[in-house]
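Reopening: structure tokens for the iron/sulfur cluster complex, inputs below.
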Amino acid sequence: MQAPPTDQLHSKLIPMLQEIQERLGYIAPEAVEWLAKELKLSEQEIYGVATFYNFFRLNPPGRHEIRVCLGTACHVQGNEKLLDTICERLGIQPGETTPDGRYSLERVACVGACALAPAIVIDDEVHGRMTQRALQRLLDKIDREDEEAMKKRGEK
Amino acid sequence: MAVIKIDNQNIEFEPTIEKTILDVAREAGIYIPTLCDHDELEPYGGCRMCLVDVEGMRGYVPACTTTAKDGMVVKTSTDELNSLKRRILQLLMIEHPVGCILCDEREQCDKFRPQAQKAGRVSGCYTCPNRNHCELEEVVNFIGMKTLPYDPEYRDIPVEREDPFFDRDYNLCILCARCVRVCDDVRGTAAITIAKRGHESRIDTAFGTSHVESGCWFCGACVDVCPTGSLSARKTKWIGIPEETVETTCVLCGTGCQVNIGVKYNKIMWSEPGNKDSPPNHHHMCVLGRFCIPTLVNTPRRTKNPMITKDSILVPASWDEAINEAARLLKDTPSEKIGFIASPQMTTEAAYLLQKIAREGANTSAIDFMGSDFAALILGNLADGHDKIQTLDKLDEVDWILSIGGDFVVTHQVVAKSVYKQVRRNVPLIHVGPIGENLRRWASYHINVPIKKIENAISKLAQKSMSIPSITKEQAERIASIISSGRGAIIVGSRIMETKNPDKCLSALLEIIGREGVVYPLLPLGNELGLIKAGARADILPGPAVNSEKGLTLGELRDKASKGQIELLYITDGSVSLTGFEKVENIIYQAPYASEWTDRATVLLPSASFAEEDGTFVNHEMRELRLKRIVDPPYHARQDWEILQNIARSIGLSKSDYKSPEDIWNELEKQKAGLKKDIYKRKSWTPARKDETRWNPKYRGVAIAEVVKDLKVLIDSLPSREVIEKRESLDELLERLQRKIPSKEVLE
Ligand code: SF4
Ligand code: SF4
Ligand code: SF4
Ligand code: SF4
Ligand code: FES
Ligand code: FES
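Re-run output (same inputs, fresh job):
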């Protein structure tokens, strides 16, 4: 029950949102506040437009970007459950970033790996035929690597 | 005239681009189910409940968005159409708590459990605050839906209760967007939006902040248009339906909105917008009238018993004793030592009686009321004007609007709604003075000067000067060209009283709008114009007419009192500050609320609130509006006019036998009106203090936020909505934010 936002102001708004996203990586609340004043719109109007289009992200990208595919094939193969597991493990919902900035989580539609369903993409690498165990192992591994990297940096 | 055939009925209509099939059907009394359509909103075409079959058009078309054309043949219900609608409705209802809709015992249940049961979560109609007037249910019943072909899926969104006044349960939401559209398109607030898209979409604020933060004014318009139980007023959601509903006038500001007061158990429990056709507000209100009235009239801070001072202690007394004591004081005190203070929130009739007691009984014109300067200044300056004060609908005819002396979006939401309608049709709005974010979005030009300097800015505008503070020369040129042609309207707020020369300010404004222009004074308190008509001011007689005798204004009265030269004060407004009056020996305090005056009173006369009295209210459009006695005043309180009439009789005033406020009104109507222009020209004005003009609405002795805690939450948030001009550039902002991204730190 929704029509795409149309208004001549939006023709001004969208390029500005794009610029912010390009330069900052995401649309921060402060940026929405800034735009509202600049364009004499309410923050809600901007938020409505920004969330309507998939290409705007409203959370800072994490160091590791996790994308859980919920396309038909992956959905049928139970990827929702894996998504729940990730949410629980990281303490965030899809569309959010962990407070330490390490992970961000996104739901996506088909990533073109249906034959390997269920698929999860982490940092642009597709991991197919995921299971609960494989997922936990994958995340453990990333955690370990990060920890080591941090240690090294600390020693320097 | 064109003809359209709907369900085999030929209907004649006047074709226009806006006239839809739905409009024509409605006028002919043919029902087409709708959900997203609302008569105040533009057609939306979202819910598909109004689909109709039009011969020669492919597929089905929504009646609400399809223009009616001559010769159309329309069917509103065919078997195929009905089953299509049923399927759409079923999809819509998957996420809605449908238990009660599908339940076989529904009829019995409605009979034996007629009222919504209180519950933490709405699990079906029987726990839904909307159940007694649900538009969704009506549509479901009409289309007929007895089964759901899929498993229902509860959205499980937490119910939002952290904001004042109303709860939001978006598990019931059908995304018809009426709330968003009324907030955006009619109220111009845009405190809510549809966030995300497709399956994930929901009504939300930016980043899910509270409504207090999102700029909501709690006007309640969204609650009133919602066809489901998603939005519900917290105070009234579980108390069923009123036994009786009466339309009366809200006196909490000068707009005088028509409000439907609902009564149950002999108590005022609801205040909802008045009827759609009732001016001035046409079913729209502000937070005060929409959500605060029941608490305000039912608060324990009401005065309860007449009291008199015996051996320097205030003790309960009978009405006779109290009236006699008041009359005795009035008779025994020398005229020059008596003062009267009326209340801009009392009825015009009561104020007329009070001035009559002052002038004819106590023989003095020492009478005034809080806020009278602004009202008198307006009326005085317009005295020989040409119908300058107009009704709000006349705004539809103006070509530009100039506003000054306060942010009317904060103080007068209903006026704001009328102005916003013009902003939407591109009428330029020029604002002079401080401004909040919301009004700033509407204003085409903002002359950003502190309130003390608006006088200077206005006189420059009047002179068509090109150097106006805070705007460029080009802007000044454009403003000059806008205001030198067409019909203009001036919205003038009471903060002009903070300038050194409010009368010069007003004259300059009148010069700018010229002969054709109209003026909308934003009276902050309520019945100021009624009180002027009643003559409740030293220099004005009933009519209103000029009084050449010397009286005392509120300021002069206070000065005199502080010197110990006032022995008796008759005060009907507890909101007036006591400061300066401490030395007054005897005080007759007549009001519906206890205040700092209560303890000082020699005689306390408990009076009715505006929902408990009959009388007349004159709003800022000079419209005479009725106040109705909906319930009896609580405890032993009486209506102001009754109390005053009794006193008038006791002091032996002739002709004081009025049977009703109408009698008083008729007497007042016989007085000849004759204000002269410029009678309020003063050599010097004492500018009003800012804290006196800041929005913190009061009602006869209480600051409303003191008794309505939710209102305090809103008022406390207002400073954050003011405009701060100095801002960073996009580059500066992005640089600052870059540094804050947590993942950057990890990566470094
Ligand atoms: S919104 Fe209407 S249909 Fe839905 S539960 Fe409430 S009363 Fe029933
Ligand atoms: S209460 Fe008024 S301002 Fe607030 S969201 Fe509803 S319509 Fe908008
Ligand atoms: S909250 Fe009510 S008015 Fe708003 S979209 Fe949902 S159902 Fe419609
Ligand atoms: S705008 Fe004024 S009259 Fe209308 S509801 Fe609000 S306070 Fe009452
Ligand atoms: S549905 Fe998941 S990869 Fe295609
Ligand atoms: S009323 Fe026509 S589509 Fe909703």
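The pocket of iron/sulfur cluster (ligand 2) is lined by residues B 182-183, 187, 189, 191-192, 211, 216-222 (CB under 6 Å). The beta strands of chain A are 64-69, 103-108, 120-122, 125-127. Marking as resolved unless the reporter disagrees.
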